[in-house]
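hi! just following up on the protien thing from before. the input was this:
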Amino acid sequence: MFWSKKETTEGAGESRADKVAIEAEGFYRSGKMHCAEAVLAAVKNNFLPAAGDDIVRLAAGFGSGSGSGCICGAVSGGTMALGLIAPGDKKRVMELTRELHTWFKGEYGATCCRVLTSKGGKSGCPLITGRVAGKVAELLGT
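and the predicted 3d structure came back as:
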């Protein structure tokens, strides 16, 4: 499943996962947020808006593979979002995180930002950001 405004007709049977994905991709494309912030913000907005916007600052250091090219920031943002939405249930958060990583590796072959961007730069990042946010929403049971 791909999420992109070009590929989804907003409002026509749009699922919560679609909405979260489109919102995250839009945040990234706006240039105001990087991948981790965009995923965390979109999930927070749709599952726990009362958490406030300050929570997104927690993701500030996770973009571009935590600044070092390691784990994809979108995956990091997704992991933080899972912990935010399912607090107090560490076992469930770990299971969901494992599912997210397994899915991501199946889709992209690696979770390392440096590997993912080695050929095309960050051109694929907006779509990856949206897809991860959508997957997180799906895992949370939209």
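The radius of gyration is 14 Å.
The helical segments are 16-30, 35-47, 63-69, 73-85, 90-108, 113-116, 125-139.
cheers
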